[in-house]
Amino acid sequence: MDIQPPSIGVLDSGIGGLSVLREIHQLLPEYPTLYLADQAHLPYGPRPADQIRAFTLAMVRFLLSQGAVVVVMACHAASAAALQAARERFPQVPFVGIEPAVKPAAAATRSGVIGVLTTQATAEGIFYRRALARYGAQVRVLTRLAPEWVLLAEQGAADLSQAQPVIQRHVQPLVAAGADHLVLACTHFPFLASAIQQAAGPQVQLVDPGPAVARQAARVWPGMPAPGRAAHHYFTSGAARDFESALKRLLGVDAHVEVVRWRGDGLEDYTLSLAG
Ligand code: DGL
Fold this sequence. Notes:
By secondary structure, the protein is an alpha/beta fold.
């Protein structure tokens, strides 16, 4: 593949970041994008922060080598582990991270109780701790780890009736405790939104930071005009076919997906390159 025009690079462990990419496509239809999914290492949630950081920094290097001029970490786990390091390592690159949307939920709650649905790496990460310290004092914040949902979203099981008990198991205790806002603090979860809403009931508001992240990507775009015709490219370290069907299912996009391979085995040595 040729080097791409200046693009917005978007990364995630898997298909989750597509929930952010669709907002970017909607807000900035004329901007070229590159999307990279590290499905070889999915899920990130249970992994230690230094490993997530090493994978993420290698993904950043790959996206920059392909023409990214803005990098969106469309993954809460990657942002928590690597955003700061990426800004230090690549000071010339504008980065957009994503963090649990505790602030808008705490501002909007009427019951005084909000639920945060997330994974372990994010719950233990710096952004969540900071958000709790800043905005969590006036409200009750209930944290619920829902790592199974990452796999549900990857498998496209949101519509299947067997997914509902797994959704219900995490939503029910939060709603029973009075939560009127549920923060989706994992980018995979917006793809389960209809099942989550069904389990929570119509009075509960789901909070997805995706649109705000897209607006931030527009703000930090470094001034150069976007080419008239946007091209979008997709890469995965997993299986191209599966990712192609996910793109069709989740975004209605027919696209060819390129495979990337990991090399290196030390935390500092990882690199990604195009397969074949
Ligand atoms: N989608 C990612 C997030 O927002 C990661 C999910 C995972 O791989 O555990 O955190």
